Each structure stands twice: as C-alpha cells, then as structure tokens.
C-alpha cells in the first residue's frame, strides 16, 4: 500500500493555496530552496513569504543540494518540517540534523544497483530515504526494479519522472510517491488541473 504522496517544486502562492485547500491534499509539499539550475527554484525572499501560511496537516520540505552554512542559517527559522538533502555526506547530514533539529530526507540518486545500497550509510540519521534519478531538475527516470531488494521496513520515498498514470502501478508498493515534472504544463509551471487529477486519483486508490 502506498504510504503517502509528495508534490515537489511548488513556487507560487496560487498553486500552494490550491493544494492546501484541496479535499484530498498530499502528505508532503516540496520547495526548491538553493538549486538555481531548476526552473522550480524559489528565490529566498519569495520563499520566505510563500511558506508563511497555515500548513494544516501538510509537511513542508526544503529541497537542498549540497547546502552551505549560509543558506542553512538563512532558512533555519522557516516553516519547514524536513530538509531533503542531495549530495550530502553522512557526516555532514548528521551535523545538519543535530544543529538545526530538523527531520531529514536523504536523497539517493540511482542509475545502477550499486547506488541503491548507499542508503545504508544514512539509516541512523534519516527519517526517510528518497530514491531519485540522477537527473535532478530534469525529471529523468530510473529502473524502479533496482529497489526490489530494499527492506520493506525502510521508510522510503520514490521519485524520477513518475507520471500520474503510473500511480495505480504502485498500489501494492510501500513507498511515498514523489511527483513534480508530470504535474507541469509545457512552460514548466505547475498545472492545477493535473494536480487535481492526481489528488483525486490518489484518494481513490
């Protein structure tokens, strides 16, 4: 059974408000905090205002790629429940978790079976392990069968160009599902109609 749903790359108040007030909201919402190569990146001041809302029961996630101390200090009082960390060593992850008293999602980027086992280095310091493609902002796919040997007891999330139509295929999987690019229009902006379709579909699985 699917454990939950995350919508990532939210960057405007209208879309966020729609998600927050949807009858079937997701469990998690992600914001690209420091990765400027992504068209979903939210500039600091805009991000500060964007997430200054009543989250209701949603979890807000700051998506960070190899964050330096400067950005971590700037966002330390923001309305985030998790930091989702890419390209961060176990030692640095432990340091961030301890200093900022924040829950951690460790992102493992996968292209071959060897990549998958890296999750073992983060077991003691991460609330969730995210398995993603190496495409970062490009919404690339990877072979999800590489995860077949990951223990069921692991609290895990999966991303990597997952489409709305793919959701029923995960019905018997124990993952949190993470979507972003498949919820966007031709200009790379979040499409409320697609978000609505996803949330209604997920609610009826």
Sheet-strand content, in percent, reads 15-25%
- The helix content is 10-25%
Strand element count: 8
CATH topology, which one?
A: TIM Barrel
Largest sheet: 8 strands, parallel, barrel
Report, as a whole number of angstroms, the end-to-end distance: 9 Å
Strand order of the largest sheet: 1-2-3-4-5-6-7-8
CATH superfamily: Aldolase class I
At the first level of CATH, the class is Alpha Beta
Please, what is the average pLDDT?
A: 94
Number of domains: 1
Q: Which term fits the overall shape?
A: globular
What is the radius of gyration? 16 Å
Give the number of helices.
6
Q: By helix and strand content, what is the structural category?
A: alpha/beta
Low-confidence stretches: none
Write down the secondary-structure element order.
Answer: EHEHEHEHEHEEEH
- The CATH architecture can be named as Alpha-Beta Barrel
